[in-house]
Amino acid sequence: MARVVILDYGSGNLRSAERALQRVGADVEVTADHRAAVEADGLVVPGVGAFAACMRGLLEVGGDKIIDHRLAGDRPVLGICVGMQVLFDQGVEHGMQANGCGQWPGTVERLEADVLPHMGWNEVDAPEGSVLFAGMEPGTRFYFVHSYGVRRWELELSDSIAPPLVTWAEHGERFVAAVENGPLMATQFHPEKSGEAGARLLRNWLDTL
Questions:
Q1: Which of 103, 137, 146, 205 makes the best surface tag, with the fewest CB within 10 Å?
Q2: What's the pTM value of the predicted model, to 2 decimals?
Q3: How far out from the chain centre does Cα 134 lie?
Q4: DSSP for 30-91?
């Protein structure tokens, strides 16, 4: 049974994520303990609310260092919702800029859409070879709740490193719905609120641990 830590830094649907992971077979602990978070088979970084507030909470528990430590050892990390957003360089909300963890270049900003927040079920466009979406039919829907997102993928291609797999969705415009980058994976939607599709995605992630 895979040991998974959900990082408790004061943000996110900790208990719903805990229950969802337990249902698909993980041994789950919700904690901010640095050692437990580094040594677990998998780490989940949740997040709900404003980018800057989530970053403050993450920094207070050393979450940025935990993520760095795990990735340096090729140990899996899964970001969810704002837990995905904080992996990028920066977020801009209400005219204020906050630095993120900088794992990927890019800016989290307000979506251009007639209706915000983007709340409800939406299809995603997953690339060929995706691990997270393996075995899922085209048109599979996931549950989103957000007004901000990454509108452009800015990581430059390299001849020596395989490019990340980027999944897109659309609400008013296209935005990044998920990223798979070696041990670092993330979703803008909430798999823990996405029924059987979300459970399948979490099982697929557990299979990588």
A1: 137
A2: 0.96
A3: 17
A4: EE--HHHHHHSSEEEE---S-HHHHHHHHHHTTHHHHHHHHHHTT--EEEETHHHHTTEEEE
Report pLDDT for 66.
98
Nearest to 83 by CA among 109, 46, 133: 46
146 a catalytic residue: no
Peptide bond into 191 cis (omega under 30): no
In whole angstroms, what is the distance from residue 102 CA to residue 104 CA?
5
Could you tell me the CA-to-CA distances from 199 to 20, 36, 59, 194 in Å, in that order?
7, 24, 29, 7
Q: What is the pLDDT of residue 198?
A: 98
Residue type at position 62: G
Of the residues 118, 146, 171, 190, which is catalytic? 190
Rounded to 5 degrees, φ, ψ at 16 are -70, -40
Please confirm, yes or no, whether 171 is among the known catalytic residues: no
Q: What is the DSSP string of 74-113?
A: T--EEEETHHHHTTEEEEEETTEEEE---SEEEEEEE---
The residue annotated as part of the active site, out of 18, 81, 171, 180, is 81
Structure-token pair, residue 27:
């041994």
Quick check: 201 and 30 in contact, CB under 8 A?
no
